[in-house]
Inverse folding.
C-alpha cells in the first residue's frame, strides 16, 4: 500500500495547508472533515481539520506524522471545506483564519500540552430519578405503609407516582431531579434516603443547553393580493435565475412572503438559512417562525456561549429531520454552519453594513458569501430590502438578478408623513428645547395624549461626544488612539469607543488649568437624560451598545416596548432595522447632518437607507405614522428624496456619481491597511509598497494616506486603496498584490509591520 498523506487546515494565520503522513494505525479513520492533532513548530501541538487525503509524496525534507484523530466523525463536510477555500481565496486570508471564524472554539483545544486531546465541549448531563425496579401495586402499597413513620419520604414517592402516572408493570419513567424536588417541596437528603432503601435510583442523561420551544404550530397566514403577486413573481424568477432581489417598502409584508417560501422548502426536506443583520431582530422574528415551524427552527449568533454554539452546530449537522435544525435564523456568522442540504438562503435587510466583517480576518461580506454558499448547494438566494444596496439593485437592473417589487404597505396603510425640521432656524429663533425642535415636541405631545409610542434615533452612544474647555478649546483625547474621549454620565467616565480605554473626568483643563469643562454634542444617554426633564410622565428606554451587552438584553428592551412598559425608545441604528411595533406612531431623527456629512463614498446611500428604515418603524398597523427629521440643511438632495420615499431617484443619482468617479458597483476595490507603532517606519514601508503597487497598477492606486482616525491602540495607520475595473481579472490582480506584500515583508525592520487586506471594504 502506497504511503498516505493528509493535508490539514490549522487555526493559524499562516498561508497554505500543511501536509502530514498518516501512520498505519490511523489509516482507516483519516478522511476529509475529521479533526486531528499534529505537531506544528518545534513544540506546539495543534488540533486542525483534515481537508484532503492523497498518496502524492510532497517535496519536503521532513514529513511529520499525524499524532491522533480526535474522533472519526467529520465535524466539517465537503461543502464547508469548499466554501472555506473560496472565502480564503476571495478575501485574501488563510484557511486557518476562516476556520477560526467558522468553528466554535470549544471544538478546538488551544495550546495542547499533551495527548490525548481533551475537547472543551462537554455534553450537559442532568440527574433524573426513577424507581429502583418495576414494583407491583401491592409492593408500592407495602412500601408506602412502611414509610408512614417518614411522611416526607412518603410524600416524595407519592409525588413521583403522580408525575409519572406509574402503575403495576409499567415501564419505569425517569423524572428530572430538579422537577421532583420542586413539585414535592422536598430536599436532596430525602431522595438519598429513598435511594439507600433501594426505592429510588439516580440516572444521568445528556440534555441540551438550548431551550426547547414546544409551542403548538399555527397555520400560515393567507397572503394578501399584492403579496401573492410578489410570491408568484419570485418563484417565476427562480425558474431562470438563482438570485432574486425583493424590493418592498417598509411594512409591505416581506416576512410573510419569506415564511411561505420557507414552508415550500421544508416540505421538500430542504434546509433554509434566514439571515438578519442584527441580534436585536432575531428576538421578534424567531417567535413568528417558531409559531409556524416549531422545533426545527434554530438561532445562531455571537451572544451564545461556546458550549451552546457547539450544540447548535451539531443540530444543524444532524440530518435526522426529527432531531436536527432545518431552518436557521442567524446573523453573518451563520453562513459557516455545517449545512448538508440547503434549498434557500434569505438575506433580509441585505443592504445593511453589519453583514460586513471588518476585523479580524476573514473580512468577508456575509451577503455575498451567502450567495456563493447557496450556489455550492445549488440553492436559491432571496435578497430583501426596503432600500437595497446600490450593488444589488444595479445587478437587478442589469438582469443578473431577478427583481420583484412590493410598492404598497400591507393592509393599504399609508407610508409615514415626513416632516423636515430646520434646527438652524429653531436655534436662531430660540425655539429649541434641549435638542428637540417644536415640530418634534408637538408630535410627541400628541402621541402621548393618544397613549401612543415614540422612537428617537441618534447615531451616537454615550452622553456627550466630547468635553471641552470653553476658555482654550482643550479636549481630552485617548492615550492610545487619535480620537476624542466620549463622556458617559452613568459611569461618570470618559471612554474611547475604539480601544475601550477609560479615564476619570478631569476637574480642570489639562492645558490652561481653568475649571468648568463643558460637554459638547449629544449621544443617546444624554437624550434619555433630557427627555425625562421635558416629558417627566413618560417612561423612557435606551437601546445601544451600552445597554445590550448581555445575552437577553435585546429581547427584554423590545418586550418592554411591545408591552407598552416604555413610552419612548431612544437608540442608535439598532432600532432602525426590521422591528415591528403596533402602537408606534412617531419617529424622530435627531441629527441627520451627522449621517450626511460622513467622509465616505457611501455616506449618501447609507443616510437614505437609514432614514428610510427608521421612518419605516412608524405607523405600521392601523394609522399613518409621522417622522420628524431634524437637520440644519433642509434643502439637502438626499433629504428631499427621503421625503418622497424615492429610492429610484436616489439610485439614479448615486449610480451616475459613482460611474463618473469610478466607485463600486462600476469597479472593484481592495484596501490595504498598514500599521506600525513607529510613525517614521510606517511612512517608509507604506511609501515602498505604494511605489511598487503604482508600478503595477498605475493610476488605479490611491494613497498611501492617513485615514480619518490615524492611530488606534498605539498603532499608527496608513491606507492604500486599489480600484480595479470590473472586466479585469481580479485573481491576477490579487496575485500581484500578494507578491508586492511578501516582498515588503522581507525588508529590514518589517517585522514590526502589520498588514491587513480588505477586499470589497465598503
Amino acid at each position: 500500500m502506497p504511503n498516505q498523506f493528509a493535508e490539514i487546515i490549522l487555526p493559524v494565520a499562516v498561508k497554505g495547508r500543511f501536509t502530514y503522513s498518516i501512520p498505519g494505525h490511523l489509516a482507516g479513520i483519516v478522511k476529509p472533515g475529521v479533526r486531528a492533532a499534529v505537531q506544528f513548530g518545534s513544540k506546539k501541538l495543534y488540533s486542525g481539520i483534515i481537508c484532503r487525503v492523497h498518496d502524492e509524496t510532497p517535496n519536503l525534507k521532513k514529513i511529520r506524522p499525524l499524532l491522533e484523530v480526535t474522533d472519526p466523525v467529520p465535524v466539517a463536510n465537503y461543502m464547508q471545506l469548499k466554501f472555506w477555500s473560496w472565502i480564503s481565496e476571495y478575501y485574501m486570508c488563510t484557511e486557518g483564519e476562516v476556520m477560526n471564524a467558522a468553528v466554535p472554539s470549544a471544538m478546538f483545544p488551544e495550546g495542547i500540552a499533551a495527548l490525548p486531546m481533551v475537547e472543551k465541549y462537554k455534553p450537559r448531563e442532568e440527574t433524573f430519578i426513577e424507581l429502583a425496579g418495576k414494583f407491583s401495586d401491592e409492593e408500592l402499597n407495602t412500601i408506602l405503609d412502611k414509610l408512614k413513620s417518614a411522611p416526607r419520604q412518603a410524600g416524595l414517592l407519592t409525588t413521583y407516582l403522580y408525575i409519572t402516572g406509574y402503575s403495576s408493570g409499567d415501564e419505569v419513567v425517569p423524572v428530572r431531579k430538579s422537577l421532583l424536588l420542586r413539585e414535592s417541596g422536598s430536599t436532596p437528603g430525602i431522595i438519598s434516603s429513598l435511594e439507600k432503601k433501594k426505592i429510588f435510583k439516580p440516572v444521568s442523561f445528556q440534555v441540551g443547553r438550548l431551550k426547547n420551544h414546544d409551542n403548538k404550530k399555527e397555520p400560515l397566514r393567507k397572503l394578501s393580493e399584492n403579496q401573492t403577486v410578489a410570491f408568484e413573481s419570485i418563484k417565476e424568477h427562480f425558474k431562470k435565475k438563482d438570485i432574486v432581489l425583493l424590493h418592498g417598502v417598509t411594512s409591505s409584508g416581506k416576512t410573510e412572503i419569506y415564511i411561505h417560501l420557507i414552508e415550500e422548502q421544508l416540505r421538500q426536506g430542504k434546509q433554509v438559512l434566514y439571515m438578519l443583520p442584527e441580534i436585536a431582530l432575531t428576538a421578534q422574528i424567531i417567535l413568528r417562525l417558531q409559531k409556524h415551524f416549531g422545533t426545527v427552527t434554530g438561532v445562531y449568533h455571537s451572544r451564545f456561549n461556546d458550549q451552546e454554539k457547539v450544540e447548535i452546530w451539531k443540530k444543524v449537522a444532524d440530518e435526522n429531520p426529527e432531531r436536527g435544525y432545518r431552518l436557521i435564523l442567524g446573523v453573518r456568522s451563520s453562513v459557516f454552519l455545517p449545512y448538508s442540504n440547503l434549498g434557500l438562503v434569505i438575506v433580509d435587510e441585505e443592504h445593511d453594513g453589519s453583514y460586513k466583517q471588518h476585523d479580524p480576518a476573514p473580512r468577508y461580506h456575509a451577503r455575498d458569501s451567502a450567495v456563493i454558499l447557496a450556489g455550492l448547494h445549488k440553492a436559491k438566494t432571496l435578497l430583501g430590502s426596503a432600500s437595497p444596496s446600490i450593488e444589488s439593485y444595479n445587478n437587478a437592473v442589469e438582469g443578473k438578478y431577478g427583481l420583484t417589487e412590493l410598492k404598497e404597505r400591507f393592509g393599504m396603510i399609508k407610508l409615514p408623513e415626513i416632516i423636515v425640521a430646520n434646527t438652524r432656524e429653531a436655534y436662531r429663533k430660540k425655539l429649541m428645547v434641549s435638542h428637540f425642535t417644536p415640530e418634534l415636541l408637538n408630535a410627541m405631545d400628541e402621541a402621548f395624549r393618544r397613549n401612543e409610542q415614540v422612537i428617537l434615533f441618534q447615531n451616537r452612544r454615550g452622553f456627550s461626544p466630547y468635553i471641552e474647555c470653553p476658555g482654550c478649546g482643550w479636549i481630552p483625547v485617548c492615550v492610545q488612539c487619535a480620537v476624542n474621549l466620549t463622556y458617559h454620565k452613568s459611569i461618570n467616565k470618559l471612554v474611547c469607543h475604539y480601544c475601550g480605554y477609560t479615564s476619570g473626568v478631569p476637574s480642570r483643563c489639562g492645558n490652561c488649568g481653568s475649571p468648568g469643562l463643558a460637554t459638547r454634542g449629544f449621544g443617546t444617554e444624554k437624550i434619555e437624560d433630557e427627555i425625562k426633564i421635558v416629558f417627566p410622565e413618560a417612561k423612557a428606554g435606551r437601546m445601544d451598545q451600552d445597554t445590550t451587552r448581555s445575552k437577553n438584553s435585546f429581547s427584554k428592551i423590545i418586550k418592554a416596548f411591545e408591552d407598552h412598559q416604555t413610552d419612548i425608545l431612544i437608540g442608535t441604528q439598532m432600532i432602525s432595522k426590521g422591528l415591528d411595533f403596533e402602537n408606534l406612531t412617531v419617529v424622530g431623527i435627531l441629527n441627520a447632518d451627522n449621517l450626511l456629512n460622513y467622509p465616505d463614498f457611501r455616506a449618501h446611500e447609507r443616510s437614505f437607507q437609514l432614514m428610510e428604515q427608521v421612518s419605516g418603524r412608524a405607523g405600521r398597523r392601523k394609522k399613518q405614522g409621522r417622522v420628524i427629521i431634524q437637520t440644519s440643511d433642509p434643502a439637502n438632495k438626499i433629504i428631499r428624496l427621503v421625503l418622497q420615499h424615492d429610492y429610484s431617484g436616489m439610485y439614479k443619482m448615486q449610480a451616475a456619481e459613482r460611474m463618473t468617479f469610478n466607485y463600486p458597483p462600476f469597479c472593484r476595490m481592495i484596501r490595504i491597511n498598514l500599521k506600525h507603532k513607529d510613525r517614521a517606519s510606517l511612512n517608509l514601508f507604506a511609501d515602498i509598497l505604494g511605489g511598487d503597487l503604482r508600478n503595477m497598477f498605475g493610476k488605479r492606486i490611491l494613497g498611501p494616506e492617513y485615514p480619518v482616525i490615524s492611530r488606534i491602540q498605539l498603532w499608527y495607520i496608513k491606507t492604500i486603496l486599489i480600484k480595479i475595473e470590473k472586466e479585469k481579472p481580479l485573481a491576477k490582480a490579487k496575485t500581484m498584490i500578494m507578491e508586492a506584500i511578501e516582498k515588503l515583508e522581507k525588508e529590514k525592520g518589517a517585522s514590526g509591520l502589520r498588514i491587513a487586506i480588505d477586499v470589497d471594504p465598503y
